[in-house]
Design a protein that fits this description.
The complex is a heterodimer of chains A (about 280) and B (about 250).
Chain A: H1 21-40, H2 51-60, H3 62-96, H4 98-111, H5 116-127, H6 132-155, H7 159-167, H8 172-209, H9 215-224, H10 228-256, H11 263-274
Helix pairs in contact in A: 2-10, 3-4, 3-6, 3-8, 3-9, 5-6, 6-8, 7-8, 8-9, 8-10, 9-10
Chain B: E1 8-19, E2 22-34, E3 39-43, H1 50-58, E4 65-70, E5 73-74, E6 82-85, H2 97-101, H3 103-107, H4 112-122, H5 141-154, E7 159-163, H6 171-188, E8 191-196, H7 199-205, E9 208-212, E10 219-224, H8 239-251
Parallel strand pairs in B: 3-8, 3-9, 6-7, 7-8
Antiparallel strand pairs in B: 1-2, 1-4, 4-5, 9-10
Classes of the chains: A mainly alpha (about 280), B alpha/beta (about 250).
Chain lengths: ~280, ~250
Amino acid sequence: MRDKRARPSQRWRPLGNWRYAPPFVLLLSLLILWQGATAIWQIESYILPSPWEILQAGIQARGLLAQHTWQTAQETFWGFLLALGAGFSLGLAIDFSPFLRDALYPVLVISQTIPIIAIAPLLVIWFGYGIWPKIIVVGLVCFFPIAVNTADGLRAADPEMISLLRTMGASYKDIFLKVRLPGALPMIFTGVKVAITYSVVGAILGEWVGGSKGLGIFMLRSTNSFRTDWVFASIAVTAVLSVLLFGSVKLLERLTLRWYYTAAREERWEEIQKK
Amino acid sequence: MSTEPPPIEVRHVSKAFRVDGRFVQALRDVSLMARAQEFVSLIGPSGCGKSTLLNIISGLMEPDEGVILLHGKPGEQRLGRIGYMPQRDLLLPWRRLLDNILLGPEVMGRDLEQARQEARELLPLFGLQGFEDAYPATLSGGMRQRAALMRTFLCKQEIILLDEPFGALDALTRRTMRSWLLEVWARFRQTLLFVTHDVDEAIFLSDRIYVLSPRPGHVVRELTIELPRPREERVVSSSTFAAYREEILAALGL
């Protein structure tokens, strides 16, 4: 009794094969167009520098850029850790009791309607010009998708699977750890991916309101001194930092959720997309 | 026949649900039992409350009226004492096959090393050797169903409930699965309550059959199948088999 359809092999492709070529080509073409445009229309460098000028300016200011980037990276890291802890805990709390769900969920949604720009100066008043206000801004910007996806992911558990474990005499803890949490992980990771995309921008936002170091500060100073090329260089660094962070979460996700990204599933998607 | 009380007995059980504001009577005064190591089938049209009955027997639900007795004793804790295999295989997608199969012993806090060893020895019987490390998503429907069955058997409960375990499989696979199920059962010899809506399947497998009416579910007929064991596929074309089939179809009103 063997089924031919089943394959024991679990081909595993963490990053796909050539899927990352198209965005590179697209990005490169845009940069070439940009370069050409600045040359043809002779645009002044303080209005719009060419990509080549930006690259040169970035290399020229690399020491400075590195210092500021390091600062922003630290803020981002600790802020994101805070968001992860707070988001996951809030998600658990919402899941834990219907009362907490009713109480917390609307408050969380309302919290997202508050413009961070408005409370960031308050954070500076409360916590000073140090790293804390920035960490808190990153936390505030990032916790929400993690909290909501944790709560919803835990709720999405298959009731029949829970029943099955109950017939085995499983405890609440068993059901949580063996069914609900693993089942929620794909959704939690989605929340984390959304959150990490905002995180660097959150840190820069925090710096704008008050600070002496960081990419945000560097951007402000460069704008004020008409070093548009440095503004763009720091934007590029911000983008690279964000992409790197997103990429590491994605990689972690692939490593953690190998069951979710089985070869069979990927192939099915490829088939669907062909049609 | 021994005077010992049966491992499982359902006595005058009724159950109603409120669906969209009105009451639906799922079960009405159902009484049945299974003796030790007996293969008992419940057959009835779809929607006759078979699954509700299994949910009640397993302890997931309590009846509105009536009692469930384990070895003659009412009011026993049933969750964790009765093996239950629902219609869907419900393998946990994030667990590799062997870890899925060992879910029961794991939850029950048994010696996992020993259970794993035993499971490995049993894999060939369930046609799953070589697939220990596969994720469920990569397996065929038949294999998943056999894995779910193996998981149920390895819970090592004295009573096992199977809810249309072959319902989702194609007719050919079902035929091979039923002979194979008898082989497996012969090895474990647990008391089996088997829910199906396939008349031939019920006769082929069972010692006894309860025929249920459409909703509200009620036992309309009880038959003892006296075909000798071990049974082979060709018994299906015997005249005794045909007589049983007639009787059940008549009881079902077909």
